[in-house]
User: Which sequence fits this backbone?
């Protein structure tokens, strides 16, 4: 019966696969188009797990690796990687990247867990689930799981005291949600909601579905009161809501009992320094030869000290490692590779808009400086006097790209003009701008004076955790001294820096550029508009927007106001052209106004890859969102070419 | 039968009965201490080393050929250069061979080729970058420098092409002194308060002990965190660290105060103290003249042993983001920079600041040891 329902493509795929199956190393061909994995063979034999064809959805995603330019792999092996904090096991949800809709390698949104998404008028989202799709414990994944999230979690007073999460609200309006049948969920707003699908594809997605069959036992409405009370007492929590929240960690990934849809599932609860993840027997992707993905059987995460990641990678203790490595480690990793290490060193490019960016605080509480920092001539002078080429050479052997904070070349909005606007090295022009502003008097050592006689001394606060920032600032100190501006660097703790910035006490600060350096028309441009305090140039404006005017200050600069308007236009529009136009204008305003002074971008990110690990791209972007680090490169398609040797 | 011994020398009526059996011990206290101290060869050497180190500190700007944050963009991670005297078998005075950097983009490191044809003669008392001589007046004279087009990195250069040798000298200015401040503060407080508490006893003692208990119960880490956030934001990292080390000293005295108190409690019952009291000596005189000297060996030893702890502590504080941090230059900061594998394996000279730390800490320990032994000149071991 099963097979009759299989799409023709799969039968074809099986036909393609047959030469390989005939290979003596492989198991004998069977009648099913799918092959049982060796890892679960015993469980299947003893009836603990159903056979492969019953574990897959009726229409799994079939990946033609050859068409993608990748190799077909074989199942098996253990992938070792390292994390530095035990809570980083959540990276497996990021790397696994099983989302309702996700980005493909060209940053297009495509259905992943979903069979299909139908968007009507930009405001009605019909999500079609895969028939026969199952959670990692074998229970069906249906619209009921969405219903449970929407009705029993998002709209439950105890679990969500403030109601459904903010991304579900459009100007305060909640969607009409319907569940017509087992495989259909419909979200309907009265206005277009272009950000909805993008959010579902994030590295840290909002999970709008939950394993209802599992969580109901902790939910007051469904659970047997007696056993619920027993569980609450056992877990020593105060209420059922606390118990439910404790069990419901789709992102934190620290409850092995919680069913998941990710390619690997957490295997043990041990609090030791090594976490294991095993292949999800019900994962919804197969290769076109009929082997279920992921190829790799187990992933082993070791928790090690921050300084040890490079040393252990150098010693060959990682099969795939990028987290915890930075460019400083490259010489030592390269040395290990050259001296016959069992790994290759790939240099990817960082996907944030700027590796190092200086944020002049437009909401600075000091009135005198407030005026200076808001003067575009001052920000321009600062930017023009930075010797970006030297910084690039010192930090990255010239491998990064010098220029403003703007969209990266991988984005359709990349423009050379934006990149180089106000970002060339021109101390003469910088001097002219400062003279024009009236800072003509100077001290004996050449430092300029403000009109009231105080020296022009800039204070930059940093999180003090990255050496490259400190090196860059050292060079900038010299650069700015040459145009008569003194620079004091004050390293703080990351959290203290945030507090300082958010309270408006920071003159300037240094941080990464925008996380997302590769916007597409569908990317919400929130982070370019003064809508969030996390952009360190406008903490007060951000607070004003975030709190609906209860805190912070209203935007009072015409260019920033325009950014707000543009973000609103983007939200209201449904066609790609308008959205693209909005994006272009916003990027242009940023390049002209230098709200954040970018220094360089696309810094190399070392990625250590075992010599036996295949399908890992040689060159790629290392980006959090969109990208989910390894997620967009589909870690489930990576495989070991030496499984037999093990 | 019995043998009787008779001194054949005639009796000298002028000789005093109280002539000591060991005339060499009849000397001023400092001489006794010095004599004993001299015998500790290691302690003596350590003392000399520290003396020279501290004497050099005011002249750091003059001895160092470069200023600490001077960036040499063409000499990133330059290896240490050897100062030579003979070029092609001919004596031409101290010189170095110039080096030229090329980026090795395969291994991602900087390679240097040495030009053996054109020796660069060092010049002395020459002009270089500006610095404040003795902190008094600005000058650009340096003890030695390389000629135009060449560099002299005796101990190599770091990731920004800054001279490690110069940085160690500048770093010493901070590393060797800032720690002393905290110790001075804590010693003055500890001895005074502990002395008063132990000598007078009673209510004063009870009160002091409760204050000490309260102080000791304050958790230090959150306090430092709060302090580092509270200091005015336009202070330089050095000023911040200075204040923190003073506060550290303000919090650090209870341990010493307790030791002083317990010693005083027992000493004040001794007869010489009673005698002084009866002769009408004031408490301050008794504490200073009679009690403290009895206790000084312990004090000196603990001071000498806390200084290295302070120097080492500077690095630990930096790790928490509370101590000195770049752009301030100290040995701890330099070591923090060198805290990665690449530094040790590929550019080992960036870890050179380890050596002064080791030597200074060891020297303080040996010196403290020797001092403790010699401050008690009548004890024999």
Assistant:
């Amino acid at each position: 019966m099963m097979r009759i329902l299989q799409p023709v493509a799969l039968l074809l795929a099986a036909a393609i696969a047959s030469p390989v199956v005939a290979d003596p190393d492989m198991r004998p061909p069977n009648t099913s188009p799918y092959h049982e994995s060796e890892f679960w063979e015993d469980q299947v034999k003893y009836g603990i797990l159903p056979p492969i064809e019953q574990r897959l959805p009726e229409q799994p995603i079939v990946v033609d690796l050859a068409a993608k330019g990748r190799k077909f792999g074989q199942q098996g092996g253990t992938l070792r990687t390292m994390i530095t904090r035990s809570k980083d096991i959540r990276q497996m949800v990021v790397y696994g990247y099983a989302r309702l809709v996700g980005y493909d390698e060209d940053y297009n949104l495509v259905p992943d867990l979903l069979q299909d998404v139908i968007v009507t008028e930009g405001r009605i989202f019909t999500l079609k689930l895969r028939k026969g799709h199952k959670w990692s414990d074998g229970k069906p994944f249906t619209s009921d799981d969405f219903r449970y999230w929407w009705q029993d979690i998002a709209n439950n007073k105890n679990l969500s005291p403030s109601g459904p999460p903010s991304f579900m609200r459009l100007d305060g309006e909640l969607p009409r949600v319907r569940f017509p049948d087992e495989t259909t969920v419909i979200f309907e707003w009265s206005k277009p909601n272009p950000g909805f699908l993008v959010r579902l594809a994030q590295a840290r997605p909002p999970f709008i579905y939950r394993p209802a069959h599992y969580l109901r036992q902790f939910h007051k409405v469904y659970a047997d009161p007696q056993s619920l009370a027993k569980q609450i007492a056992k877990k020593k929590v105060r209420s059922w809501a606390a118990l439910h929240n404790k069990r419901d960690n789709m992102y934190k990934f620290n409850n092995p009992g919680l069913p998941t849809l990710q390619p690997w599932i957490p295997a043990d609860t041990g609090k030791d320094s090594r976490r294991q993840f095993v292949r999800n027997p019900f994962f919804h992707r197969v290769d076109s030869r009929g082997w279920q993905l992921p190829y790799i059987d187990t992933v082993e995460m070791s928790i090690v000290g921050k300084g040890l990641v490079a040393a252990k990678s150098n010693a060959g203790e990682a099969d795939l490692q990028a987290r915890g490595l930075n460019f400083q480690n490259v010489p030592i990793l390269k040395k290990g590779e050259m001296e016959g290490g069992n790994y290759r060193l790939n240099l990817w490019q960082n996907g944030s808009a700027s590796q190092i960016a200086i944020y002049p605080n437009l909401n600075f509480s000091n009135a005198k400086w407030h005026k200076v920092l808001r003067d575009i001539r001052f920000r321009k002078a600062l930017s023009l006097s930075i010797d970006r080429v030297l910084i690039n050479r010192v930090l990255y052997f010239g491998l990064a790209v010098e220029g403003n904070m703007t969209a990266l070349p991988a984005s359709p909005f990349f423009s050379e003009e934006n990149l180089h606007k106000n970002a060339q090295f021109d101390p003469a022009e910088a001097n002219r701008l400062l003279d024009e502003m009236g800072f003509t008097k100077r001290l004996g050592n050449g430092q300029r004076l403000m009109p009231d006689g105080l020296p022009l001394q800039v204070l930059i606060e940093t999180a003090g955790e990255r050496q490259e920032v400190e090196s860059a600032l050292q060079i900038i100190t010299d650069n700015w001294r040459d145009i008569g501006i003194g620079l004091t660097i004050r390293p703080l703790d990351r959290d203290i820096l945030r507090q300082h910035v958010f309270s408006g006490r920071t003159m300037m600060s240094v941080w990464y550029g925008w996380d997302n350096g590769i916007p597409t028309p569908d990317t919400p441009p929130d982070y370019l508009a003064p809508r969030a305090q996390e952009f360190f140039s406008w903490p007060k404006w951000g607070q004003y927007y975030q709190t609906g005017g209860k805190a912070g200050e209203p935007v009072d600069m015409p260019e920033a106001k325009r950014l707000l308007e543009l973000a609103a236009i983007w939200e209201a529009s449904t066609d790609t052209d308008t959205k693209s136009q909005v994006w272009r204008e916003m990027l242009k305003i940023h390049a002209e106004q230098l709200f954040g002074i970018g220094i360089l971008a696309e810094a190399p990110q070392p990625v250590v890859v075992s010599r036996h690990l295949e399908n890992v791209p040689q060159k790629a972007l290392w980006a959090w969102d969109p990208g989910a680090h390894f997620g967009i490169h589909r870690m489930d398609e990576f495989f070991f070419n030496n499984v037999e040797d093990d | 039968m019995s043998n009787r011994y008779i001194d054949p020398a005639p009796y000298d009526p002028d000789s005093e009965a109280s002539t000591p059996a060991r005339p060499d011990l009849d000397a001023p206290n400092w001489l006794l201490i010095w004599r004993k101290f001299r015998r500790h060869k290691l302690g003596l050497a350590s003392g000399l080393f520290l003396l020279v180190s501290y004497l050099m500190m005011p002249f750091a700007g003059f001895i160092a050929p470069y200023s600490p944050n001077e960036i040499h963009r063409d000499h990133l991670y330059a290896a240490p250069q050897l100062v030579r005297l003979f070029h092609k078998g001919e004596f031409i005075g101290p010189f170095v061979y110039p080096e030229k950097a090329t980026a090795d983009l395969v291994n991602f490191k900087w390679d240097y080729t040495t030009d053996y044809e054109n020796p660069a003669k060092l010049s002395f008392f020459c002009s270089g970058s500006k610095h404040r001589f003795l902190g008094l007046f600005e000058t650009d004279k340096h003890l030695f420098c390389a000629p135009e087009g060449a560099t002299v990195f005796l101990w190599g250069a770091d990731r920004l092409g800054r001279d490690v040798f110069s940085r160690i000298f500048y770093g010493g200015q901070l590393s060797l002194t800032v720690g002393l401040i905290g110790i001075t503060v804590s010693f003055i407080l500890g001895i005074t308060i502990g002395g008063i508490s132990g000598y007078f006893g009673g209510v004063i003692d009870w009160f002091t002990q409760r204050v000490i208990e309260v102080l000791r119960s304050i958790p230090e880490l959150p306090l430092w965190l709060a302090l580092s956030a509270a200091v005015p934001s336009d202070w330089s990292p050095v000023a911040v660290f200075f204040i923190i080390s003073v506060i550290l000293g303000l919090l650090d005295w209870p341990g010493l105060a307790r030791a002083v108190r317990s010693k005083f409690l027992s000493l004040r019952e001794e007869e010489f103290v009673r005698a002084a009291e009866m002769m009408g000596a004031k408490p301050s005189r008794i504490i200073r003249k009679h009690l403290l000297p009895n206790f000084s060996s312990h004090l000196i030893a603990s001071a000498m042993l806390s200084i290295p702890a302070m120097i080492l502590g500077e690095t630990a504080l930096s790790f928490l983001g509370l101590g000195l941090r770049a752009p301030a230059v100290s040995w701890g900061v330099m070591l923090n920079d060198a805290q990665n594998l690449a530094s040790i394996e590929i550019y080992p000279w960036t870890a050179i600041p380890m050596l002064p730390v080791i030597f200074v800490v060891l020297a303080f320990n040996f010196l403290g040891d020797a001092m403790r032994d010699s401050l008690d000149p009548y004890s024999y071991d």
Remarks:
- The first strand of chain B starts at residue 84 and ends at 87.
- Strands of chain B lie at 84-87, 90-96, 99-104, 109-114, 120-121, 123-133, 137-145.
- Chain B touches chain A at residues 69, 71, 73, 76, 103, 105-109, 159-161, 225, 228-229, 233-234, 236-237, 321, 325-327, 337, 339-342, 345-346 (CB under 8 Å).
